[in-house]
């Protein structure tokens, strides 16, 4: 009983005289950051003479939070319990703030919250926002519902945190419910909530709703501008994102963009391949004193890589004093985007990537680009060994790797065993089926994704239209092409038009394909006309072929494919003289056909070797030797070993099997290349 009385005796009369000096002493120590002295003073004080004013312990907790002193904060928490001040709301909220910011285990923070005798709106808001910051949006919404059950009314900060949770969950329906709650409670003009709503609509691809909400804001601040610019960038509306950025600079005089806004702008510029403007923003970063920030410098690396200037990316990376996982992954991704897959594998050897999922996924993409399934399997095993669990980013990359290497059954197995399937996982599997000739399964997978509530994006429709074109599903393809804009507000890009031209051309609907190209925003893109010209050769339509080829040559006089495809059309219908004239025209204009290139894995091409593939060029000496060797082989099984004058440099062994049928030969060759 005595202990209980002492616990709830906040202001014992016998120590009133010392409270004021103690308070001044502790507050002075908190201001100076001398936590060690404060803790020693608390530990040395007699229990009856402990300070009993909540502001003292709240100040000590805040000082511990500022100095990232988790052990000191735990000791202060124990003294709070001894002093019987744990029921004070001010101290309770300070404890929540301390644990949220310093404790890595959010379940411990939840226990602190659960034992608070009194929970006010600040306590509930701390839990709602804390779960969002911890990446647990579902738990955040559960806390919000519990708060409503207890009759606590949300304030603007609570609602903004709940909207952010909906953004993380990409739950449009729930986000719209909170939008309605915001309007009912009269918070529509609140900038924090408005910026959160813009972000929520942007993440759910409702970009026009985000625009309307932003336009209604009377005086948007920098946070609101950043939200709308990020929303348009995330939805690949880069031109409009840069337009908003320009408007922001005009409307807010003297604004110095922060690192997050500059990172978003650099991302938009990179995706538009605007290196000149990107360099201007880079200069702005330097003059603004932000060049040492990892976030913005990683964005600069990514921007230069997307503009195809990987050497500049490497220079920025090498000059960085502090490199984290983001900067390493930015350079890895840059090499991967530019097809320099060997550099990705080399760079991966230099970094400590055991704890970074994105570096693993980037290297797996490089393996997919090289069709290096052996190295991909090594990485798969390595990840399982160090992590021993599942990860949606890695599993999506594995699905993509195995599908691109032709191992669709492996890819499907990884997909089925994935604990979580996001849009990237679905896209990888749909693309895998489509690219490996299993179009029916790709369409079925797309329908399953829609039924499961996952919203398709730009890439999804590229895969679906590709699948339709390779199975002759003309009406199905037209339906999906229309639904992109009508149902999902996705503007058709060059890839979608290429698939549609291929779909219509395969079905012999060449005139309709030509009309589609002429009516599109990409009528001046030579790749569309090239696809149509190739179909003219298949269906023997010289009149259309000449018209299309003329258009292609107007657009790109130096593009060799225009001449080659037209010559092939003439050959198919027996107009050999016309085909010869096209070839002569190529010589006259000095247009050269690009030589083909292929590669095979070199001996010992594992992750530990420095050379991963051996490249063969159709104009190279090795290729000519290979062709000569194949001609020398009789039509029965044989082995041939060729050695050039520089025999130590290379040894090529060919194992050939051939059959003769009329005047045609079918040669199956298996060869190994040893580089010394």
Automatic annotation (TrEMBL):
One MF term in GO for this entry? Answer: mRNA binding
Q: Which SUPFAM superfamilies match?
A: TPR-like
Ranges: PPR repeats: 120-154, 221-251, 324-354, 422-456
The UniProt record lists the keyword Repeat: yes
**Entry superkingdom:** Eukaryota
**Per the record's keyword annotation, is Repeat included, yes or no?**
yes
Q: What is this protein called?
A: Pentatricopeptide repeat-containing protein
**Biological process according to GO:** RNA modification
Q: Which family does it belong to?
A: Belongs to the PPR family. PCMP-E subfamily.
Under the heading Pfam families, the entry gives: E_motif, PPR, PPR_2
- What Gene3D superfamilies would the database entry show? Tetratricopeptide repeat domain (1.25.40.10)
Matches recorded under InterPro entries: E_motif (IPR046848), PPR_At4g14850-like_plant (IPR046960), PPR_rpt (IPR002885), TPR-like_helical_dom_sf (IPR011990)
What organism does the UniProt record list as the source? Dendrobium chrysotoxum (Orchid)
Q: Which UniProt keywords apply?
A: Repeat
């Amino acid at each position: 009983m005595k202990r209980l009385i002492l616990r709830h005796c906040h202001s014992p009369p016998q120590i009133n005289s010392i409270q004021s000096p103690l308070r001044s002493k502790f507050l002075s120590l908190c201001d100076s950051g001398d936590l060690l002295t404060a803790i020693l003073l608390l530990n040395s004080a007699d229990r009856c003479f402990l300070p009993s004013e909540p502001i003292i312990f709240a100040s000590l907790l805040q000082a511990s939070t500022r100095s990232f002193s988790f052990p000191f904060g735990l000791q202060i928490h124990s003294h709070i319990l001894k002093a019987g001040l744990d029921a004070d709301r001010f101290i309770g909220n300070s404890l929540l703030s301390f644990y949220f910011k310093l404790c890595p285990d959010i379940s411990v923070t939840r226990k602190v919250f659960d034992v608070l005798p009194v929970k006010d709106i600040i306590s509930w808001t701390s839990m709602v926002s804390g779960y969002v910051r911890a990446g647990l949006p579902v738990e955040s919404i559960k806390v919000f519902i519990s708060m409503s059950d207890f009759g606590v009314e949300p304030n603007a900060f609570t609602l903004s945190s709940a909207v952010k949770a909906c953004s993380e969950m990409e739950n449009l329906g729930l986000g719209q419910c909170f939008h309605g709650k915001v309007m009912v409670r009269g918070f529509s003009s609140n900038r924090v909530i408005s910026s959160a709503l813009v972000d929520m609509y942007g993440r759910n691809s409702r970009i026009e709703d985000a625009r309307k909400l932003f336009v209604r804001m009377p005086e948007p601040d920098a946070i609101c501008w950043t939200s709308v610019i990020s929303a348009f960038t995330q939805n690949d509306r880069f031109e409009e994102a840069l337009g908003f950025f320009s408007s922001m600079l005009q409307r807010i005089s003297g604004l110095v963009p922060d690192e997050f806004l500059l990172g978003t702008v650099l991302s938009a510029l990179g995706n538009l391949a605007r290196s000149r403007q990107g360099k201007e923003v880079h200069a702005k970063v330097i003059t603004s004193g932000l060049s040492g920030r990892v976030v913005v410098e990683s964005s600069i690396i990514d921007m230069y890589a997307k503009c195809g200037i990987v050497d500049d990316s490497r220079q920025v990376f090498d000059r960085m004093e502090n490199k984290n996982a983001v900067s390493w992954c930015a350079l890895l991704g840059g090499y991967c985007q530019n097809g320099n897959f060997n550099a990705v594998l080399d760079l991966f050897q230099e970094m400590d990537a055991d704890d970074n999922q994105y570096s693993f996924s980037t290297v797996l993409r490089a393996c997919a680009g090289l069709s290096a399934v052996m190295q991909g399997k090594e990485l798969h095993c390595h990840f399982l060994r160090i992590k021993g669990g599942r990860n949606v980013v890695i599993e999506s990359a594995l699905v993509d790797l195995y599908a691109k290497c032709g191992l669709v059954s492996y890819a499907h197995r990884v997909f089925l065993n994935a604990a979580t399937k996001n849009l990237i996982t679905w896209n990888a599997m749909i693309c895998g089926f489509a690219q490996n000739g299993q179009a029916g399964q790709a369409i079925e997978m797309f329908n399953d994704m829609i039924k499961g509530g996952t919203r398709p994006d730009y890439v999804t429709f590229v895969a679906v239209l590709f699948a339709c074109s390779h199975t002759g599903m003309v009406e199905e393809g037209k339906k999906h092409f229309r639904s992109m804009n009508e149902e999902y507000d996705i503007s058709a890009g060059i890839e979608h038009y290429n698939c549609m031209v291929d779909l219509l051309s395969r079905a012999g609907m060449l005139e309709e394909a030509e009309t589609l190209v002429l009516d599109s925003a990409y009528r001046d893109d030579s790749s569309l006309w090239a696809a149509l010209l190739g179909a003219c050769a298949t269906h023997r339509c010289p009149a259309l072929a000449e018209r299309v080829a003329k258009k292609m040559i107007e657009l790109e006089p130096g593009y060799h494919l225009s001449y080659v495809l037209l010559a092939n059309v003439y050959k198919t219908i027996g107009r050999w003289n016309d085909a010869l004239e096209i070839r002569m025209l190529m010589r006259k204009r000095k247009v050269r056909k690009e030589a083909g290139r292929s590669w095979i894995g070199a001996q010992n091409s594992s992750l530990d070797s420095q050379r991963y593939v051996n490249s063969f060029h159709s104009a190279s000496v090795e290729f000519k030797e290979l062709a000569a060797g194949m001609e020398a082989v009789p039509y029965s099984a044989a082995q041939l070993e060729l050695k050039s004058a520089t025999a130590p440099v290379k040894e090529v062994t060919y194992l050939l099997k051939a059959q003769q049928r009329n005047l045609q030969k079918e040669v199956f060759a298996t060869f190994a290349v040893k580089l010394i």
